[in-house]
């Protein structure tokens, strides 16, 4: 068990820091996938980042754009490895929402 997994195990479900711990675990799995190429790491990254995104609250909303970007990358890499069009669709959706959530779409010069 990694330190991140231990932290997650000991963090209550309702704790405001749980989405950030999940996001860090998902990003670590994604980084390991990039280095080693194990599809299990990629799958773990998708599941963990999806949970982090679902648990994002008003208190953790500043983390949401970063979670969405990493999740979008994970779905895209999974699409590249498996050709599931649903993964590509989800990557586009999640990453598109990252710019809106991050405030970039609210700038006057942005359509």
> What's the shape?
flat
Q: What do the pLDDT scores average to?
A: 84
What share of the residues lie within helices? over 70%
CA radius of gyration is: 15 Å
Q: Helical element count?
A: 5
List keywords for this structure.
111 residues; mainly alpha; 5 helices; 71% helix; 0% strand
Please specify the SSE layout and strand pairing.
Blueprint: H1 3-10, H2 18-36, H3 39-54, H4 64-82, H5 85-101
Question: Gist?
Answer:
With about 110 residues, this protein is an all-alpha fold. The protein has 5 helices and no strands. The N and C termini lie far apart (about 45 Å).
What does this 3D model show about the protein?
By secondary structure, the protein is mainly alpha-helical. The protein has five helices and no strands. It is flat and about 35 Å long. The chain starts with a helix and ends in a 10-residue tail after the last helix.
């Amino acid at each position: 068990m990694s330190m991140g997994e231990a932290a997650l195990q000991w963090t209550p479900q309702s704790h405001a820091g749980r989405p950030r711990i999940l996001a860090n675990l998902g990003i670590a799995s994604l980084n390991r996938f990039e280095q080693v190429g194990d599809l299990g790491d990629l799958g773990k990254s998708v599941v963990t980042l999806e949970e982090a995104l679902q648990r994002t609250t008003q208190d953790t909303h500043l983390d949401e754009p970063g979670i969405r970007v990493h999740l979008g990358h994970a779905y895209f890499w999974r699409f590249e490895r498996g050709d599931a069009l649903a993964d590509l669709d989800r990557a586009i959706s999640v990453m598109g929402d990252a710019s809106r959530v991050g405030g970039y779409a609210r700038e006057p010069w942005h359509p």
